Amino acid sequence: MARLSLYLLGTYDITIDGEKIEGLYNQAKALLVYLVVESHRWHSRESLAAMLWPNEPEHTAKQNLRQAVSRLRVALKERDSGLSYIEATRTGLKFNTASDYTCDYEAFRSACCAGNNLVEQSHIADATGWMQEAEQYYRGKFLAHFSAEYSDPLREWIHSRAEAVKLEAVAVTEKLSQYYERQGDFTQAISAAHKLVDIEPWSEGPRHLLIRLLSESGNDVAALVQYESCCSMMRSELGVEPSQETVALFNRIKNNVRKNTSSSPSASLASAHERRHVTILSCRIDVPVLAEPSKVAIEVRRFTERCRDIAGRYGALPYSVSGDECTLCFGYPITEQNTEKVAVEAALAIQQMYSEQGDATLFKAGMATGDALVLMYKGAASPHLIGDPLTQADFLRHMAQGGECALCRTTKAHVDRQFQCTARSFSAGDDTGTPGVYYVLQGRLDASTY
Questions:
Q1: Residue 90 · residue 104 · CB < 8 Å
Q2: pTM for the whole thing?
Q3: In the chain, N or C: fewer CB atoms in 10 Å?
């Protein structure tokens, strides 16, 4: 591990020997970040002082700069290690690029540059590897949570860098989505499209791409949900309607869903307000809070992408996908038979993903089946669900241990002949003293047993 690590994309952190640097005021942090990002040249003390303390007299600003450099040297433990991160002369400062450090911003830019060069040389397969690496480094906006309220010049510099990095991230992710689509890998193409929506949430283009890919992958229901989300965003945030192209795409998908629904007597489309029989899958990953922030961010993003992929693959509504928790709804907006079985298959698929990477205990889930009230309000991006299955699924998730999926009695009864479950009792916490029972999913039963 490098002694000095800077995380500037999404999660903002500076660590030395794996420990977060504490006690530095914003201008000192900003000075270090600026010198690292602009490490290709020397910077005059006058220009740095004017940028960080624009409202102070020149002599005061220069004195503040000297104090900031001194505090950085202490925080970076230069005296203890014998390393020098900041090169200094009487007139200028520069970051020592030969020192022991890593920076996600630099790693992202280098991967983008390598990928683009290979694309120009038509080495697409090799370029894809670099673009995938760049995508992993881009976890969010440049210095998204950094405060620069005291300096307009610094704020302008941060904004210009953030816009430049975002454009690079969009270009890389679009190329990845196009590459995966050409290869017929819709799971990866849809995952890249979701990332584009995260990068540019107020843009119609990425949402149109996501809707199209979901439909072409065979998941028209998820595509319609994404269209409603797109409409809600554009009306509430931009005050406009979707383009004619997006509306035409929506109409084609809607007609396809109606055609398929009318040919299936077991399926029906949702209306605005109704009661539905649903199965809820509540998932969570337990990432150690003391882990390196960048690793936590990567793991949470991977979990979110996996849940969205599973929702698309198994026809679930991603009711709530946020951080380290995810709730999927099976049985809305299209009701079909055997939603319990499909939900269990989806849970097993997520479990398998974590088992294959050796992190099975990170994942836990709860599943419950029952009636829920579905309320769809005008302009809302997604429906609002009310009912016992949601609270019960959350409760069962809390009861589950690492790597487990806990099922309620009703869900277990519907899948009893296809999946093996083990009963587990718990204290019900009521006045009767009667213990409660839930079931832990073990896996599929051999077809020969039923």
A1: no
A2: 0.63
A3: C
